[in-house]
Design brief:
This protein is α/β, with parallel strands linked by helices and 425 residues long. The chain has two domains: 228 residues, 3-Layer(aba) Sandwich (Rossmann fold); 171 residues, Rossmann fold (3-Layer(aba) Sandwich), CATH 3.40.50.2000. The chain is built from 15 helices and 13 strands. The strands form two sheets. The chain has a seven-stranded parallel beta sheet, sandwiched between helices. Strands 10-9-8-11-12-13 form a six-stranded parallel beta sheet, sandwiched between helices. The two termini are 17 Å apart.
Length: 425
């Protein structure tokens, strides 16, 4: 293979890590290889990693990718053991537990002593492995993807040592991420983190995000001369076409997949279903990393609804469940309306099932969703609108599907071609 077309990717999350975040560069790497590039991935040894989710099925997607695994030093596995008795279950995801004294103390330590994040102990190991590869091989491009955003600090050092085009990928925002407000950070900690982010933004050859609009305008203030590119997460067209699954005929089936926290407006759905549960047979399926207290809260509030919690499903199983839905639910994290478009949302769209999403109606996600023929973004306080939309889907559940114009543009392969054209040529 042409050595001029090698690309080095630093990604903490990599199979067998599960969740939607790992899939972004897993799929980019797979399609880059198909399109004539040689991706080389540096990641952490999963035996030492702080992965909140494991999906062994994803290993089949990357079995032909060259992967270099390193050691790491980080406190999150210890935190998880202390908070939950498990090395994985207690790792925070999109929500910082602060109700207990231990939670408040842990949030303070995490927010002020581990800057930019508690996985920064991987950085020296990643740098050492990358230095070896960059010294021995002719590599033209370096990608660092975060979170954890400490990965970008490795890129910053490598950029100073080697002549290489370095692109930074922000799967989620850095200092502006919505849950940072729960970290109890001091002004000096915030200033330090902001300066690290500015150094990365200003010195990279370019910055990739999953969404443009307000996020790009915000980042532009920190790096006025930088080039910002939006490339969404997309969906696996081969997997989506290959799965044949239909909704049940005897009940109205509502499905939610993914992370669910108190930072999302699921109570609005509960209220709407309380208005409907006496009139229809409703099955509500949830899958993903969802706290037991939220499951029990929903179960208690909707006694006439058949509630099924599937736990965490692997990627293929999650898509099968999506396709068995009459209605798919989505919740934008409070404070994150301008920050991201999840990979799950593109898979929702590609499944062609009706979508009800709650969040800001003027957000980039809303603009995307509402291109569909049967999909809508509503404010969480619009109980009448939520109830009306669900009722419409119930009454027409056998005939409605969500058509989406030029859906092929959002496939992982198509988006990888955009990546090559915009960032690697």
């Amino acid at each position: 293979m042409d050595s001029q077309k090698k690309i080095l990717i630093l990604s903490y999350y990599w199979p067998p890590s599960g969740g939607s975040g790992v899939q972004r560069w897993m799929y980019f790497a797979r399609h880059l290889q198909r399109l004539g590039w040689e991706p080389i991935v540096i990641t952490v040894d999963e035996k030492q990693a702080s992965y909140p989710l494991i999906d062994l099925s994803l290993l089949d997607e990357v079995n032909k990718i060259r992967v270099i695994k390193t050691s790491t030093r980080e406190p999150l596995r210890l935190y998880s053991w202390l908070s939950s008795g498990s090395a994985q279950e207690g790792i925070p995801q999109a929500e910082v537990p602060t109700k207990s004294i231990f939670g408040k103390f842990a949030a303070y330590v995490r927010g002020n002593f581990f800057i930019p994040d508690a996985r920064k102990g991987w950085m020296p190991f990643a740098i050492k492995a990358a230095q070896k590869v960059l010294t021995e091989e002719n590599i033209s491009h370096l990608i660092t993807t975060g979170p954890p955003h400490s990965t970008h600090l490795a890129g910053l050092q490598l950029r100073d040592q080697f002549e290489i085009k370095w692109w930074v990928d922000f799967r989620d925002p850095w200092t502006d991420i919505f849950y940072n407000k729960q970290m109890q950070r001091t002004q000096s900690s915030q200033a330090k983190d902001t300066q690290l982010e500015k150094n990365v933004l200003q010195k990279a050859n370019g910055v990739i995000t999953t969404v443009g609009g307000d996020l790009h305008r915000s980042l532009k203030q920190k790096a006025p001369n930088q080039r910002f590119i939006a490339i969404a997460n997309g969906f696996d067209a081969e997997l989506m076409v290959g799965i044949k699954s239909d909704p049940p005929e005897d009940v109205f089936h509502i499905v939610y997949t993914g992370l669910l926290t108190h930072q999302q407006s699921y109570p609005s759905i509960i209220k709407a279903l309380q208005n409907l549960e006496g009139n229809y047979l409703i099955r509500f399926s949830l899958a993903g990393n969802i706290p037991k207290q939220i499951i029990e809260e929903i179960r208690a509030a909707l006694p006439k609804v058949e509630l099924i919690y599937h736990g965490y499903l692997n990627h293929k199983e999650a898509i099968i469940l999506m396709k068995r839905a009459h209605l798919l639910l989505n919740f934008i994290f409070e404070g994150a309306n301008t920050q991201m478009i999840s990979g799950k949302l593109l898979e929702y769209i590609a499944s062609q099932r009706p979508i009800l999403s709650l969040g800001a109606t003027n957000s980039e996600a809303a603009k995307l969703i509402e291109k569909g023929s049967c999909a809508i973004m509503l404010n969480s306080n619009d109980l009448e609108g939520i109830t009306s939309f669900i009722n419409r889907i119930i009454e027409q559940k056998e005939t409605l599907f969500n058509g989406f114009p030029e859906i092929e543009k959002w496939s992982r392969e198509s988006l990888t071609k955009d990546l090559i054209k915009k960032c690697l040529d």
